[in-house]
């Protein structure tokens, strides 16, 4: 699941989110046919779908996914180019996942049609329609309704309309966790809403599985049959990846927003070329596997969240001296971590910390474990785009040398925004006004990024992106 606050389930326990409800609904049915079903909630509150997340799709969600959901309606708003980018990045993912989109926006439905014309499956779940099917709770119906929908809708309002519906919105009584910050916000949905949406999507998946089994039962299962299925998938992949942005999104002026993708919205590598991200954000597949930190893999708890990954340093317990290897520090805000036993969130905006006191610090990317896990072949010839996602990396800071940045020893002389000021992602620009960087001849294909702070005391980098 990719999404913002609603998908993250703010105000609920982690095992009350609709993502967990999907797995709880379908896992037994899939297990019966030898398929292990995992629904992974990688939603991040207050985060749009791109460009930082969509351009980092493989390292964020993993390189083996069958379904990728989009639930960013609140954070993306009417920025439809972000959804176009999301679908295009999914279309070049190694497994070309089916897109699930929660919402009923007609413009995004039209974009889904564009995707499907060229072989990318896209399914819409109209959650408002699903909610409309639940009957009101009244004195006449209250005893007939099961607990999951009793006091869910009052006077036509979901989780509202009366005090009883509002009082029964949450099911977290008895916890030592302070959830008041989330539960006082009306836009956050309660456990009944998550369970409803999760069960409906889960039933859809089980029904799809049964339909597939029925089709297989009527099909003579031979090598040629399997080959034909594989050929059909390859045709869809080829149709999508060989299409042009212009023909896929006909009528959409991708260059209209001059800030989108650094003013290079028609530059196809942003949309279709492989990318690599070294990201501190959580949830993050590369963090969980230990690829980012060159550490042990974490393990997945029965309720869907991950434990045992390298958390880095709390900002109030940082080492006093520069690390011996001169690397960036992985850090987090301790006040953002929960301090109670019931898990209610797993999304944290951790960061790589650069400090003025440390002078020049560096990192070589991708590291050897990232190359192995994501099958990144060191490109010794091609040109690449490199971006930093960090607050404070501005044109002024670079021009006045408040922040000095080098790529393989060459100075970064300018930066350009990847979307808008809120994204905090900046393209690194070298001499001759070029945002393309060439890997060293005869090298490993890695880039060495060096940063030195002359004025700010620290810089917090969430993601380093290479396309």
List keywords for this structure.
globular, alpha+beta, 21 strands, 467 residues, 19% strand, 16 helices
Structural overview:
By secondary structure, this protein is α+β, with helices and mostly antiparallel strands. The chain is 29% helix and 19% strand. It has 16 helices and 21 strands. The protein has helices spanning 5-8, 18-31, 57-61, 73-76, 80-91, 106-117, 127-132, 163-167, 180-183, 191-217, 223-242, 245-248, 269-272, 285-288, 368-373, 395-399, and strands at residues 2-3, 67-71, 98-102, 122-125, 153-154, 157-158, 276-279, 299-300, 306-307, 313-314, 329-332, 351-355, 361-365, 383-390, 403-407, 410-411, 414-417, 425-429, 436-438, 447-453, 458-466. The strands form five sheets. Strands 7, 10, 11, 12, 14, 17, 18, 19 and 21 form a nine-stranded mixed beta sheet that branches. Strands 1-2-3-4 form a four-stranded parallel beta sheet. A four-stranded antiparallel beta sheet has the order 13-20-15-16. A hairpin with a 5-residue loop joins strand 8 (299-300) and strand 9 (306-307).
């Amino acid at each position: 699941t990719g999404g913002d606050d609603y998908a993250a389930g703010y105000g609920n326990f982690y095992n009350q989110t609709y993502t967990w409800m999907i797995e709880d609904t379908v896992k037994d049915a899939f297990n019966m046919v030898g398929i292990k079903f995992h629904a992974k909630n990688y939603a991040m509150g207050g985060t749009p779908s791109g460009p930082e997340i969509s351009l980092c799709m493989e390292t964020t969600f993993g390189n083996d996914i069958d379904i990728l959901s989009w639930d960013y309606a609140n954070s993306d708003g009417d920025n439809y180019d972000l959804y176009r980018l999301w679908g295009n990045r999914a279309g070049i993912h190694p497994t070309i996942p089916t897109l699930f989109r929660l919402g009923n926006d007609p413009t995004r439905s039209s974009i889904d049609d564009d995707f499907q014309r060229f072989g990318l499956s896209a399914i819409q779940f109209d959650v408002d329609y699903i909610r409309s099917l639940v009957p009101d709770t009244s004195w006449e119906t209250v005893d007939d309704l099961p607990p999951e929908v009793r006091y869910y809708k009052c006077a036509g309002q979901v989780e509202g309309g009366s005090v009883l519906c509002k009082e029964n919105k949450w099911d977290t009584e008895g916890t030592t966790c302070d959830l008041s910050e989330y539960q006082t916000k009306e836009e956050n949905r309660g456990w009944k809403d998550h369970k409803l949406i999760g069960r409906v999507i889960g039933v859809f998946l089980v029904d799809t599985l049964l339909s597939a089994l029925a089709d297989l039962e009527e099909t003579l299962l031979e090598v040629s049959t399997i080959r034909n299925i594989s050929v059909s998938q390859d045709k869809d992949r080829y149709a999508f990846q060989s299409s042009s942005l212009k023909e896929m999104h006909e009528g959409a002026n991708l260059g209209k927003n001059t800030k989108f993708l650094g003013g290079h919205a028609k530059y196809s590598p942003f949309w279709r070329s492989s990318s690599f991200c070294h990201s501190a954000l959580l949830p993050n597949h590369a963090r969980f596997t230990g690829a980012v930190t060159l550490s042990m893999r974490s393990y997945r708890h029965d309720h869907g969240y991950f434990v045992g990954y390298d958390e880095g340093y709390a900002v109030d317990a940082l080492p006093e001296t520069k690390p011996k290897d001169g690397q960036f520090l992985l850090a987090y805000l301790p006040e953002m971590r929960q301090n109670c036993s019931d898990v209610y969130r797993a999304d944290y905006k951790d960061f790589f910390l650069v400090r003025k006191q440390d002078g020049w610090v560096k990192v070589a990317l991708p590291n050897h474990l990232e190359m192995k896990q994501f099958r990144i072949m060191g490109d010794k010839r091609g040109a690449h785009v490199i971006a930093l996602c960090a607050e404070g990396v501005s044109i002024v800071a670079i021009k006045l040398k408040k922040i000095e940045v080098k790529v393989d020893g060459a100075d970064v002389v300018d930066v350009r925004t990847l979307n808008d000021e809120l994204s905090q992602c900046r393209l690194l620009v070298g001499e001759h006004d070029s945002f393309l960087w060439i890997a060293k001849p005869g090298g490993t294909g890695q880039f060495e990024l060096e940063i030195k702070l002359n004025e700010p005391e620290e810089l917090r980098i969430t993601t380093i992106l290479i396309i």
